[in-house]
Amino acid sequence: MNMQRIIKSTNLISDIEKIVAEIKHDKLFVLTDEHTANLCLPLLDPWIAVKDVSRVVIPANDTNKTLENLAYIWKHLTQNGATRHSLLINLGGGMVTDIGGFAAATFKRGITYINIPTTLLGAVDAAVGGKTGINFEGFKNEIGAFYPAACVLISSRFFSSLGRKDILSGFSEMLKHALINSEAEWKKLLTFDAGDIDYEWLTDAVFRSVSIKEEIVKKDPFEHNIRKALNLGHTVGHAFESFALETERPVLHGYAVAWGLISELYLSHRVCGFPKEELQKTVRFIHRNYGAFALDCDDYEHLYDIMTHDKKNANASSVNFTLLSGVGDIQINRVAGKDLIFQSLDFYRDSVGL
Ligand code: GLY
């Protein structure tokens, strides 16, 4: 897999000009959703004004990461004369970079694309590492491909306009990166105050976080082994997220991951001896910042069913997890039985006061 360049943008216009000039292409396309078309694309106006850029706009939100919108992008590319040498720029959050990346992966067997993430979650996770895809038949990212952007341009100027919830949603992926990386990084992140954000501190933390992810992806781009570390918190987190959607009380991805981390650090404690003190400190941070997602013990069977469908599991009768034996000590391919998973859900409910 080609490696992608991650660029810390200090001047969006001149950085994009430079990158686009370096990538050989004929036609240029920019994909946004309805939100980023209004809120972010205008920042590129001075550049777009002098370029012949074809704009594609799709509806916002993860529920629109669909086959229909993928086909809409393909149609736009075809009808506007895109060739194998065209360049696509995805400007948006994870939804835009996921579907745009997959459109690029599949159009004429693959065209070059650039990601410009506009959310914290996108910058620290979705835009980086080459995973692209769409949701299908009610399952998140069911169809997709590993197909990295030629370049990811990260500009912190988008972060300051994000609301507290969107910051926290991205921050849980940063916390995950810190947990799989080192005690020092984890300690730094637990000092984060979402009520009084220091954007300079946050930007530095974002780039450290992206490097942690990059290092892992470099070692195992197709997730055969160590990249599974990035799934920490996501097996339970995805189950919470899908369940939330089904019960019509959708939650942000990063919130589901934060709550998933509570259960999975408990499993880490029980299965791999993850220390109690680190568990408690992390759980307190998550509860203080992310509150709770309500569930009761009658929901456990269904959550377990969702977990067994998770594509990271080898078969339907066991659930495969990435766990930790300590902060920075990754244990991939650990299996937990149903009873223990139910206990981890009890622990989650106790921890968040349900
Ligand atoms: N979001 C996890 C990964 O990129 O592997």
Descriptive report:
- The chain has 354 residues and is α/β, with parallel strands linked by helices.
- The protein is 49% helix and 18% strand.
- It is built from 14 helices and ten strands.
- It has helices at residues 12-22, 34-39, 45-48, 67-79, 94-106, 120-126, 164-181, 183-189, 199-219, 234-246, 253-272, 276-290, 300-309, 338-351; strands spanning 5-9, 28-33, 53-58, 87-92, 112-117, 131-136, 139-146, 151-155, 319-326, 329-336.
- Strands 1-8-5-4-2-3 form a six-stranded parallel sheet, sandwiched between helices.
- The N and C termini lie far apart (45 Å).
- Bound molecules: glycine.
- Residues 125, 129, 131, 227, 230 line the site of glycine (GLY).
Number of strands: 10
Helix/sheet category: alpha/beta
Through-space gap between termini: 45 Å
| Overall average residue pLDDT | 94
**How large is the count of helical segments?**
14
CATH topology of the largest domain: Dehydroquinate synthase-like, alpha domain
According to CATH, the homologous superfamily of the largest domain is Dehydroquinate synthase-like - alpha domain
Reading off the top of the CATH hierarchy, the class of the largest domain is best stated as: Mainly Alpha
- The figure for the number of domains is 2
Query: Sheet bearing the most strands, described?
Result: 6 strands, parallel
Helix content: 40-55%
Beta-strand level of the residues, as a percent range? 15-25%
Lateral arrangement of strands in the main beta sheet: 1-8-5-4-2-3
Gyration radius, rounded: 20 Å
Based on the coordinates given, report the CATH architecture of the largest domain. Up-down Bundle
Bound molecules: glycine
**What best-fitting shape do the alpha-carbon axes yield?**
globular
Poorly predicted regions are: none
